[in-house]
Description:
alpha/beta
Amino acid sequence: MSAFPLPFTPRRVVIGAGSHAAIASYLREHRPGLEIRSAELTAVTGDDLAWADTYVGFRRPPAGATMGNVRWVHCTGAGVDSWLSPEELDRSILLTRTPESFGPPIAEWVVARVFAFQQQLLALAEAQREHRWAPRERIAVSGTKALVVGTGDVGRAVARALTALGVTVDGVSRSGAPVTEFRTVYPVTELADVVAGAQWIVLVVPDTAQARGIFSRSVLARCDGAVLLNAGRGSTLDEDALTEALDHGRLSGAALDVFTTEPLPATSPLWDDARVMISPHISGVTTVEGAGNGFLECAAELEAARLPKWAVDRERGY
Length: 318
Ligand code: GLV
């Protein structure tokens, strides 16, 4: 990416997002000189992209096969997979990702589900609907073991939150290098060997060529009654093998926020599976301030002729 000509000053920005109007007014307020067009993702036109030098949004707009005259894309998500596959954004265009930290919200998403499973909240809600007095054993979360796959910003926040609840937390990363928040970090090559010891397995890995499919059928087959929580990307998990793993007791439950196809098709059997908790990709959602500040921070760096820390390494995919 060092080839990107610096300094670069964004002047004409197209925002393509559901919250485009709010992001646009945030940027107008903080950078009055900026010319802005904004629209829903699907309403961004080829003309907009020919007009703009910069694009802000989570996904490539349908009209964005070539991205017109855009030279910088600021992705409002932490995961930039929609800019890298199936069609990689031209490498002459700078791609940055949002600096907003999704660690705290995703940690809350995880903690909510850990308690929902451990305290059987779904079964209690059902019993309540049926006016059934259905006592059950309350098992503590404290003293359980978790394995967090992905030891970056998000994985570390999840580890801190679970540790605070008395959970012993191990991690898995590409290198297996030690990270303070984890008791032990294993290299991903050992993933299949370490899943059996965990009651909670949390996936917080981006969709990269290396991570795609890592939670495979054979890894699922080595789990020992864990609850699997996926807040990273659907592509990292073999969704087809999931039901089988639940049926065979390899998993006792799953909480899924991300799916191979989103929105999850209405015909998916996962919707009706009482062992599965589904949420619609909401564990870590970019805020208007997060999107706006991320753009402003990167823009300031580019104007000062520095490549922002948030520039995506095309080889790593994040
Ligand atoms: C959301 O999934 C993101 O990558 O920001």
